[in-house]
Structures are given as structure tokens and as C-alpha cells.
């Protein structure tokens, strides 16, 4: 949320009065006076003080890692298919999914109620890398790796951004690779491999930006972000404001 909004809510001030307090240097973020009321802050990750008294801790955002199961749709609710929210407690029902996955895809989902961070992680403007373990029904070879590096061209002429493909296992009937892309077109991973003559038969997202799927997190389970992951969230927000 904006710093001015936080000061208004916690101090019961009008917008004009909150701006005045900020401009007078009465507000600190992590021990530093901040004069910009439009600055994005998260009181769950930062110490916000007014006249040296901390405020707004209960207004902080939440960040959750979830290991999506195959067959779930990335939605709040669905009449036909299960969703991740079926596995979440009531106090997490207000969160939204960052980086949706197709129903047949497993792996890393992030959830939050921080709208700005959600936007930064999903917007195609920022080229957030997404990494997948991909199993296909044919051979992945060096020529395919080079095509990915240049940017695969679809049948309609659309050229994807350059991507990194690493061969983990390969043979004529089945191959496994690690793929990192920096855009999020609909069914993009499946369409890229189809353009190269093979079909994706299993797909798992293992990383989204700097966040990596916890290897101890079983499918259908979740956990709050660690302190280290929360610091990464804060770094992303700070970099955006520069």
C-alpha cells in the first residue's frame, strides 16, 4: 500500500493531514525519514514509525508458496474442477494467485494480497523468468536448444523471446529438459515444443522469478514465505520504485 494510505488508516487522518505529516518528516521507514507519500510499503516486512512509534503491523500483506497438483485449476473456485483454495484455510481465502498454471501443470504457485507485488510478478513488462521441468515425447537435441536461444517462431509467425533450454535426459521416445522463459503467453511452453516437432507430456514449474519451489513441499500443500523470501519481496518492491 502507499505510505500515505497507511498513515491515514493508522492515525485517523485526512489525506491532507497525512501528506503534511509525511512532508514534515514525522514518518520513518526502517529508520529513515521518507517524504514521498506515494512510496509503496509493507508494514509486515518493514518498520513504519510515526514520531518513533511503530504503526500498521496488523495491516501487513501475506505471501504464501503452494505446490499445485495436477487437475487443479488456478482459480478461486470452479464448479467442475478442484482449485488450490480448496486446500487453504479460511484466512487465506482472500489471497490471489500469482502466475497461474494450466490444469494439467504441476508446481510452484505464489499467493498474496499485495496487489502491487502481484502486478510486478505477472506483468510482461518486467520479463520475470519462469523455469519448468519439461518432459516431451521425443528427442531434445542441440539444434532445438539453439532454436530456443534465438526465439522459437510459431506457425502464425509470432517469435518468442529467447529462452534457455537445458537437456537433462534425451532419447528418441522421451526427453526431459529444464526450460526458462521470460514471457507468459497462453500455453506457451506447449506451443514452443510443438513448433519444434515434439509434444509436452508432463510439465512442472519449479521457479518463478527468484522464488524456487520448496523441495520439501508436497503437492497440494502450502507454507508462508520464509524470512529470506520476504526480504526478496521487499527488494523487488524497492527496485521497482527506483
From TrEMBL:
SMART domains: S4
InterPro entries the record matches: PsdUridine_s_RsuA/RluB/E/F_cat (IPR042092), PsdUridine_synth_cat_dom_sf (IPR020103), PsdUridine_synth_RsuA/RluA (IPR006145), PsdUridine_synth_RsuA/RluB/E/F (IPR000748), RsuA_PseudoU_synthase (IPR050343), S4_RNA-bd (IPR002942), S4_RNA-bd_sf (IPR036986), TruA/RsuA/RluB/E/F_N (IPR020094)
GO BP terms: enzyme-directed rRNA pseudouridine synthesis
UniProt GO molecular function: RNA binding; rRNA pseudouridine synthase activity
UniProt keyword annotation of Nucleotide-binding present: no
Domain RNA-binding S4 as annotated: residue spans: 1-60
Alphabetized CDD domains for the sequence: S4 (cd00165)
Alphabetic keyword roster: Isomerase, RNA-binding
GO cellular component: cytosol
Family annotation (Pfam families): PseudoU_synth_2, S4
Family stated for the protein in its record: Belongs to the pseudouridine synthase RsuA family.
PANTHER family: PSEUDOURIDINE SYNTHASE (PTHR47683:SF4), PSEUDOURIDINE SYNTHASE FAMILY PROTEIN-RELATED (PTHR47683)
This protein's name: rRNA pseudouridine synthase
Organism annotation: Aerococcus christensenii
Amino acid at each position: 500500500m502507499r505510505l500515505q494510505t497507511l498513515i491515514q488508516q493508522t492515525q485517523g487522518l485526512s489525506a491532507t493531514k497525512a501528506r503534511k505529516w509525511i512532508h514534515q518528516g514525522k514518518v520513518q521507514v526502517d529508520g529513515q525519514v521518507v517524504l514521498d507519500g506515494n512510496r509503496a510499503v509493507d508494514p509486515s516486512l518493514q518498520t513504519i514509525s510515526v514520531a518513533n512509534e511503530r504503526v500498521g503491523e496488523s495491516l501487513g500483506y501475506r505471501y504464501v508458496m503452494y505446490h499445485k497438483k495436477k487437475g487443479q485449476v488456478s482459480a478461486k473456485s470452479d464448479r467442475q474442477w478442484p482449485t488450490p483454495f480448496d486446500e487453504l484455510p479460511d484466512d487465506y481465502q482472500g489471497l490471489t494467485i500469482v502466475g497461474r498454471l494450466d490444469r494439467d501443470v504441476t508446481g510452484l504457485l505464489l499467493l498474496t494480497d499485495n496487489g502491487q507485488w502481484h502486478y510486478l510478478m505477472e506483468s510482461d513488462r518486467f520479463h520475470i523468468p519462469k523455469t519448468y521441468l519439461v518432459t516431451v515425447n521425443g528427442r531434445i537435441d542441440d539444434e532445438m536448444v539453439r532454436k530456443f536461444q534465438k526465439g522459437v517462431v510459431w506457425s502464425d509467425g509470432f517469435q518468442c523471446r529467447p529462452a534457455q533450454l537445458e537437456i537433462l535426459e534425451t532419447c528418441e521416445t522421451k526427453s526431459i529438459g529444464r526450460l526458462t522463459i521470460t514471457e507468459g503467453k497462453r500455453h506457451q511452453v506447449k506451443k514452443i515444443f510443438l513448433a519444434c516437432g515434439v509434444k509436452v507430456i508432463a510439465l512442472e514449474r519449479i521457479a518463478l522469478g527468484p522464488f524456487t519451489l520448496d523441495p520439501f513441499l508436497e503437492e497440494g500443500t502450502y507454507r508462508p514465505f520464509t524470512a529470506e523470501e520476504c526480504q526478496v519481496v521487499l527488494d523487488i518492491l524497492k527496485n521497482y520504485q527506483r
